């Protein structure tokens, strides 16, 4: 059998009915001057790569548009291909 701890009850008067007494759980006291730390979201670092394919293009090994098509179909960005 588990016993659950409950917040102590305190009697407070309702401003709407002066003679009645409302019972509600006591709240934890907040410390003034202490605030939650909020994580500051910054801009994602964006990387830029350049590929110099002048030599293979001059030797007719590969065309730059074919290399671009290959890279777009094979490289994943954030888990998705074609996201360059």
Short description:
With about 80 residues, this protein is of the alpha+beta class. The chain has two helices and four strands.
Explain how this protein is built.
- The protein is of the alpha+beta class and 84 residues long.
- The protein has two helices and four strands.
- The protein has helices spanning 54-58, 64-74, and strands at 9-13, 21-25, 76-77, 80-81.
- The strands form two sheets. Strands 1-2 form a two-stranded antiparallel ribbon. The chain has a two-stranded antiparallel sheet with strand order 3-4.
- Strand 1 (9-13) and strand 2 (21-25) form a beta hairpin.
- The radius of gyration is 33 Å and the shape is rod-shaped.
- It starts with 8 loop residues before the first strand and ends with a strand.
- The model has no long low-confidence stretch (mean pLDDT 74).
Number of strands: 4
Helical fraction equals 10-25%
Q: What overall geometry do the principal axes of the alpha carbons give?
A: rod-shaped
What structural class should be given to the helix and strand makeup?
Answer: alpha+beta
Distance between the termini: 59 Å
Strand order of the largest sheet: 1-2
| Range of strand content | 15-25%
List the secondary-structure elements in sequence, H or E: EEHHEE
The whole-angstrom Rg is 33 Å
- Counted by DSSP, the helix tally is 2
Largest sheet: 2 strands, antiparallel
Average of pLDDT: 74
Catalogue the unreliable spans. none
């Amino acid at each position: 059998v588990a016993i659950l701890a409950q917040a102590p009850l305190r009697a407070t008067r309702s401003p709407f009915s002066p003679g009645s007494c409302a019972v509600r759980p006591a709240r934890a006291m907040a410390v003034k001057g202490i605030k939650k730390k909020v994580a500051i979201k910054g801009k994602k670092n964006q990387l830029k790569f350049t590929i110099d394919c002048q030599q293979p293009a001059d030797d007719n090994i590969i065309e730059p548009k074919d290399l671009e098509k290959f890279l777009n179909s094979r490289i994943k960005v954030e888990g998705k291909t074609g996201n360059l």
